[in-house]
Amino acid sequence: MALKLIVTGGAGYVGSVCAARLIESGHEVVVVDDLSTGHADAVPDGARFVEGDAAEATASLLGEGFDGVLHFAAKSLVGESMTDPAKYWHGNVLTSIRLLDAMRDNGTPRLVFSSTAATYGEPESSPIRETAPTQPTNTYGASKLAIDHAITSYARAHGLAAVSLRYFNVAGAYGRYGERHTTETHLIPLVLQVASGDREQVQIFGDDYPTEDGTAVRDYIHVVDLADAHLLALQHAVAGEHRIYNLGNGTGFSVQQVIQTCRDVTGHPIPATLAPRRTGDPAVLVAASDRAREELGWKPERADLSGIVGDAWRFAQERRQG
Ligand code: UDP
């Protein structure tokens, strides 16, 4: 069934890929983005674009009658969330509550929300299930967790069909949609900047973690597999319920392994130097995504790390060539 949907943050990385996949599946998409971190030219072909605040602009559109909202718009820099917490409590939490109010007032039936593995903090066991304790170690994770709590209560009280997807480490690209943050903090794009010649070397944040090679381990998921989980979430959302799913491949790769994969894919030696640990970085973050597999019928199709890096590399090169 074709749905009429609002995608907040649809000019950003994950939002643009998801909006593109939604349009390809026959849905009608309006992208709302204030372009604070997104790019107007990343809004997918076929989407209507409204530039504005995720809550305000969405609130003024919802009266047109929409089947749902996919809410990607957010502040997402962990370090910044510790030095400027207000930006996260206002920009993430208050904006999302205003959005929930507008959905309640207009009777908008479905919400899919971009949550994060950062809601769990330092895990007590691995892989991480949805039942794991939520003890975020930074304000970014705390702000996303607060929104998840708000969604739970709005769903129960007002009959909203809601799904939160807790992303692990998203990477890769899809066609002309990919990762292009002005302030880049993520490992794979930073390593690829070295291969492109835009950066001299990559820093390895800590080599004394209790892991096989001493560097931190993460679960890297292809952005297209992630986007496709949103389409399934829309189909499986149940009125009055808020369901939460972890999304990852269930396999961890260390920082050293990621850098080596980037060397293999790009053919560049990619010099790496050792730097101190980044505050608040857990040693290992790997998802147990059995719940998404069982309840949504989700199955990652692009789990191979070389393929994920290969797609990110193709995207980076195409952007350099204009
Ligand atoms: N990392 C690193 N050097 C960098 C960027 C990241 O060693 O220049 C490490 C980081 O400490 C973490 C992993 O790479 O262990 C993934 O970091 P990223 O910022 O990509 O995602 P996060 O897991 O923090 O969400």
From TrEMBL:
EC number(s) stated in the UniProt entry for this protein: 5.1.3.2
Domain of life (superkingdom): Bacteria
Pfam families for the chain: Epimerase
Gene3D superfamilies the record matches: NAD(P)-binding Rossmann-like Domain (3.40.50.720), UDP-galactose 4-epimerase, domain 1 (3.90.25.10)
Catalytic function, reaction form: UDP-alpha-D-glucose = UDP-alpha-D-galactose
Cofactor(s) recorded in Swiss-Prot or TrEMBL: NAD(+)
InterPro entries linked to this entry: Epimerase_deHydtase, NAD(P)-bd_dom_sf, UDP_G4E
GO function terms (MF aspect): UDP-glucose 4-epimerase activity
Domain NAD-dependent epimerase/dehydratase: start-end pairs: 6-248
GO biological process: galactose catabolic process via UDP-galactose, Leloir pathway
UniProt keywords, alphabetically: Carbohydrate metabolism, Isomerase, NAD
Record's signal peptide: none
Annotated metabolic or biological route of this protein: Carbohydrate metabolism; galactose metabolism
Subunit structure: Homodimer.
Record family assignment: Belongs to the NAD(P)-dependent epimerase/dehydratase family.
Name of this chain's protein: UDP-glucose 4-epimerase
Species assigned in the record: Amycolatopsis bartoniae
Source organism phylogeny: Bacteria, Bacillati, Actinomycetota, Actinomycetes, Pseudonocardiales
Record gene name: galE
